[in-house]
């Protein structure tokens, strides 16, 4: 990619989301304040329903905070940005489009001329080892290949912000590690900003320079763990890796206990 | 690829043999001029083909125009309903109550309003098709994967992009499925409408032959109407398949 964007900065300032259904108010996330610098890789982790997906949806511009602000590069998000790539849990591939058409979707939406869009999509597909599958349909691909196709779509759109909502949750563990390596390599090459929502402590520690821990509902940030050794050689097999995992596990447990204590009052 | 094609051809050859044999046996057993044997039917059809053509074209025109009108009205409406919760809440019960009513009972009303020519027939068939397509497309839009919509929205896609890249390709197969299934009903309604009123179309031709006790002529009309149904069914089937090659 020649026209590499530098990563975007994302700032959550006391952002809360409350859903109203009938007379009931459900708080999906509460007072989230988080500042993510350009080119950072942040993992969001927490129990189910803690608002980490809601946080990601706000960053994608798919959901406006009911209170507080979410800023990208200093300005409030009013609608989804074309250089934000959002990979939903089930990837959001369009089954009626070929691999090539799926990869170029972001560019077509940006009204980039078709031949240029095709060219960039081909390059992105080659980057994730999907060259040769341009005319297949998503159904004909394996789980890991579909995963890489979703990544190619983000690469082709030259995303400066990559948002992933448990993208690897449906993948078996060996393949999962190799896809995590792909994600890591791409991030190290491109230096985009990325936010990864995950359930897996190991995944958070492997892919997050910072690990942001959420408490149970109403979700809020309870810990922001720095993880400077992430991305170094043999990181996954090092004793520090296991130690970091333990640290995150403690933070998760502490967050959960804290909430329980508050509710007990 | 080649063997599957051969198998398909063999399948259709068997079907034709099966149907013709069944017809033949029934005709021999009934032994009535009202049901000629296949050989007699072919003779009758070739003898009447010149007289039949204008009737066939009238009927074909009516049914095709009606299918078009019914579909073109139903598809955008069904998509609008499902995209707008307010519209859907208001109109879903209306559709629910009107859908099961056999539209064909409105024929006398339509004849009184629109006369005996094309208009009442086209209105009646359009109405029948309209509800079938409306219900099918409404269900199809509701089953569009939310993540596909999220994905296109998050890429900065406009509502038009959502429509073009997601809603239309996701629901088009349902349109043609409902049309393919609806062809039978549409032609049945056409037959009744033409038989009841006017002096054009295959329905009229068949019933007029019947009242003249000209059974060979009547049977030629029946075969023509059957052909109309098969041809339309095959066309919609082919379109549907080509649109769902991704499945």
SSE layout and pairings?
The complex is a heterodimer of chains A (265) and B (247).
Chain A: E1 10-21, E2 24-36, E3 41-45, H1 52-60, E4 67-72, E5 75-76, E6 84-87, H2 99-103, H3 105-109, H4 114-127, H5 143-156, E7 161-165, H6 173-190, E8 193-198, H7 201-207, E9 210-214, E10 221-226, H8 239-264
Parallel strand pairs in A: 3-8, 3-9, 6-7, 7-8
Antiparallel strand pairs in A: 1-2, 1-4, 4-5, 9-10
Chain B: H1 2-30, H2 38-83, H3 85-98, H4 107-114, H5 118-142, H6 146-154, H7 159-196, H8 201-211, H9 215-243
Helix pairs in contact in B: 2-3, 2-5, 2-7, 2-8, 2-9, 4-5, 5-7, 6-7, 7-8, 7-9, 8-9
Your description of this structure?
The complex is a heterodimer of chains A (265) and B (247). Chain A is α/β, with parallel strands linked by helices and 265 residues long. Chain A folds into two domains: 140 residues, P-loop containing nucleotide triphosphate hydrolases (Rossmann fold, 3-Layer(aba) Sandwich); 67 residues, no CATH class. In chain A, 37% of the residues lie in helices and 24% in strands. Chain A has eight helices and ten strands. In chain A, strands 6-7-8-3-9-10 form a six-stranded mixed β-sheet, sandwiched between helices. In chain A, strands 2-1-4-5 form a four-stranded antiparallel β-sheet. In chain A, a hairpin with a 2-residue loop joins β4 and β5. In chain A, α4 packs across α5 and α5 runs parallel beside α6. The longest helix of chain A has 26 residues. Chain B has 247 residues and is mainly alpha-helical. Chain B folds into two domains: 31 residues; 208 residues, MetI-like fold, CATH 1.10.3720.10. Chain B is built from nine helices and no strands. In chain B, α7 runs antiparallel to α9 and α8 runs antiparallel to α9. The longest helix of chain B is centred in the N-terminal third of the chain and has 46 residues. Chain B is globular and about 70 Å long. The model of chain B has no long low-confidence stretch (mean pLDDT 89). The interface between A and B is medium-sized, with 29 and 20 residues.
């Amino acid at each position: 990619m020649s026209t590499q964007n530098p990563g975007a900065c994302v700032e959550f300032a006391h952002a809360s989301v409350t859903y109203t259904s009938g007379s009931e108010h459900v708080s999906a996330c509460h007072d989230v304040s988080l500042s993510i610098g350009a080119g950072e890789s942040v993992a969001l982790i927490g129990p189910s329903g803690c608002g980490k997906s809601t946080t990601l949806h706000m960053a994608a511009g798919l959901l406006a905070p009911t209170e507080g602000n979410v800023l990208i590069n200093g300005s409030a998000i009013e609608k989804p940005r074309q250089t934000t790539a959002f990979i939903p849990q089930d990837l959001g591939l369009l089954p009626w489009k070929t691999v090539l058409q799926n990869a170029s979707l972001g560019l077509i939406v940006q009204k980039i001329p078709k031949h240029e869009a095709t060219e960039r999509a081909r390059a992105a597909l080659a980057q994730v080892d999907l060259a040769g599958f341009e005319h297949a349909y998503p159904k004909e691909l394996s789980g890991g290949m579909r995963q890489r196709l979703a990544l190619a779509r983000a690469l082709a759109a030259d995303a400066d912000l990559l948002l992933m909502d448990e993208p690897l949750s449906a993948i078996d563990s060996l393949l999962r590690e190799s896809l995590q390596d792909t994600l890591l390599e791409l991030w190290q090459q491109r230096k985009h900003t990325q936010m990864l929502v995950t359930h897996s402590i190991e995944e958070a520690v492997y892919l997050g320079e910072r690990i942001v821990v959420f408490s149970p509902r109403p979700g809020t940030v309870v810990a922001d763990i720095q993880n400077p050794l992430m991305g170094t050689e043999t990181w996954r097999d090092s004793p520090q890796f296991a130690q970091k995992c333990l640290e995150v596990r403690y933070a998760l447990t502490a967050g959960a206990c804290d909430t329980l204590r508050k509710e007990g009052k | 690829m080649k063997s599957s094609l051969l198998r398909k051809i063999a399948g259709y050859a068997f079907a034709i043999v099966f149907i013709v044999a069944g017809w033949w046996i029934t005709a021999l057993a009934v032994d009535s001029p009202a049901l000629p044997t296949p050989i007699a039917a072919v003779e009758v059809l070739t003898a009447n083909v010149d007289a039949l053509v204008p009737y066939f074209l009238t009927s074909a025109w009516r049914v095709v125009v009606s299918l078009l009108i019914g579909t073109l009205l139903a598809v955008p409406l069904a998509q609008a309903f499902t995209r707008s919760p307010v519209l859907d809440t208001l109109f879903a019960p209306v559709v629910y109550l009107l859908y099961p009513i056999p539209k064909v009972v409105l024929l006398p009303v339509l004849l009184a309003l629109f006369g005996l020519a094309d208009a009442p027939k086209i209105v009646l068939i359009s109405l029948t098709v309209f509800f079938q397509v409306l219900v099918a497309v409404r269900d199809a839009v509701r089953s569009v994967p939310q993540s596909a919509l999220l994905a296109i929205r998050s890429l900065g896609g406009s509502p038009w992009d959502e429509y073009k890249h997601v809603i239309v390709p996701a629901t088009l197969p349902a349109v043609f499925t409902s049309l393919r299934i609806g062809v039978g009903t549409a032609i049945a309604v056409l037959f009744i409408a033409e038989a009841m009123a006017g002096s054009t179309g295959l329905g009229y031709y068949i019933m007029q032959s019947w009242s003249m006790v000209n059974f060979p002529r009547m049977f030629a009309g029946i075969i023509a109407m059957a052909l109309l149904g098969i041809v339309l069914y095959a066309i919609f089937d082919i379109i549907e398949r080509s649109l769902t090659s991704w499945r």
